């Protein structure tokens, strides 16, 4: 573990019965850094955040915040937003923040916090009468009343409209710029790419890749691609000088009737258009794109899921063979 890290996890393991939530998860987050955890549902993101904040006791491994164990650290220096957070809904937004501010000796003005999350004009509205996105922003505000040094946000912008989401993003950026260390989980790859200094991909309870968004895209994102919307089959592109394939399954950005030309620069798109026209190949659209963090997510998460499926299949086959042996 790095000595300068503000948030550390080393070999965290946690199981609930036969369900393995964490399997040797490790990470290190430096001061003032925004670290985003991404991964599929059930990968262990929420359990990892709970282990880091002391609300879940790991079965083994070590977690530390600012040099202390999560259960010993000064709680006034932390802000924690769980994925499921249900404050008293008959209090107004201002009353809720004033309540949480009252838990600390040196808290921020609730009105200032409401302004930070873009709700300056809704302070007197009951929590239950706010929209889902506004409620979530109030919850974000509740984690900021103590002006924390370290902030944990589990899916902070879930349910928030695009304008409100950008308000929260700007707030997180400002907090990080002022020295706050932020650990967040998200399924929004655009959110991770914009906010995170580094990203950790959690799959099957372990952090299987970490690095800056650019580094992860460069190492795991694959090549640039030109998607051609056409009913023509791959044989029609046999003479094209670039590799051509069908769209990868499960990637919703690709249309059903299409072929994908890979590893192609924008300047070469005219060459492909000339090829299409020379062979009278009918097409309805062209889309060029570079790999991004979503491609990294899909590539690595799919690999881990397939490995898990293979292991499960091997185990099932072994069980069946053993049972057959017993029967014989």
Helix and strand arrangement:
Layout: E1 5-16, E2 19-30, E3 34-38, H1 45-53, E4 60-65, E5 78-81, H2 93-101, H3 110-116, H4 132-142, E6 150-154, H5 162-177, E7 181-185, H6 189-195, E8 198-203, E9 206-211, H7 213-220, E10 225-229, E11 244-245, E12 258-262, H8 269-278, E13 285-289, H9 293-327
Parallel strand pairs: 3-7, 3-8, 5-6, 6-7
Antiparallel strand pairs: 1-2, 1-4, 8-9, 10-12, 10-13, 11-12
Describe the structure.
It is a single chain. The chain has 328 residues and is α/β, with parallel strands linked by helices. The chain has 2 domains: 5-211, Rossmann fold; 221-289, Alpha-Beta Plaits (2-Layer Sandwich). It is 34% helix and 24% strand. It has 9 helices and 13 strands. It has helices spanning 45-53, 93-101, 110-116, 132-142, 162-177, 189-195, 213-220, 269-278, 293-327, and strands at 5-16, 19-30, 34-38, 60-65, 78-81, 150-154, 181-185, 198-203, 206-211, 225-229, 244-245, 258-262, 285-289. The protein has a 6-stranded mixed β-sheet with strand order 5-6-7-3-8-9, sandwiched between helices. The protein has a 4-stranded antiparallel β-sheet with strand order 11-12-10-13, with no helix packed on it. A 3-stranded antiparallel β-sheet has the order 2-1-4, covered by helices on one side. A hairpin with a 2-residue loop joins strand 8 and strand 9. Helix 2 (93-101) crosses helix 3 (110-116) and helix 2 packs parallel to helix 4. 34% of the residues are buried.
């Amino acid at each position: 573990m790095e000595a300068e890290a503000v948030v550390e996890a080393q070999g965290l393991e946690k199981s609930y019965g036969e369900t393995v939530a964490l399997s040797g998860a490790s990470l290190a987050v430096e001061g003032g850094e925004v670290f985003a955890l991404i991964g599929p549902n059930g990968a262990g993101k929420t359990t990892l955040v709970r282990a880091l904040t002391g609300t879940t006791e790991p079965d083994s491994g070590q977690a530390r915040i600012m040099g202390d164990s999560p259960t010993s650290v000064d709680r006034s220096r932390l802000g924690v937003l769980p994925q499921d957070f249900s404050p008293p809904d008959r209090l107004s937004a201002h009353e809720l923040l004033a309540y949480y501010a009252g838990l600390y000796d040196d808290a921020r003005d609730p009105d200032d916090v409401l302004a930070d999350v873009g709700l300056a004009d809704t302070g007197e509205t009951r929590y239950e009468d706010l929209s889902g996105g506004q409620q979530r922003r109030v919850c974000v505000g509740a984690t900021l009343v103590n002006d924390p040094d370290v902030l944990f946000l589990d899916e902070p912008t879930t349910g928030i409209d695009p304008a409100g989401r950008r308000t929260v993003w700007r707030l997180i950026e400002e907090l990080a710029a002022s020295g706050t260390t932020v650990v967040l989980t998200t399924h929004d790859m655009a959110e991770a790419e914009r906010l995170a200094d580094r990203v950790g991909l959690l799959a099957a309870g372990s952090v299987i890749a970490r690095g800056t968004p650019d580094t992860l895209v460069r190492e795991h994102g694959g090549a640039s691609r030109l998607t051609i919307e056409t009913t023509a089959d791959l044989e029609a592109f046999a003479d094209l000088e670039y590799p051509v394939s069908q769209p990868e399954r499960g990637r919703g950005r690709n249309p059903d009737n299409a072929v994908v030309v890979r590893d192609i620069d924008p300047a070469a798109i005219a060459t492909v258009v000339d090829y299409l026209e020379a062979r009278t190949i009918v097409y309805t659209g062209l889309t060029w794109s570079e790999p991004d963090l979503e491609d990294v997510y899909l590539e690595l998460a799919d690999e881990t899921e397939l490995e898990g499926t293979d292991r499960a299949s091997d185990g099932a086959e072994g069980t069946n063979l053993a049972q057959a042996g017993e029967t014989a």
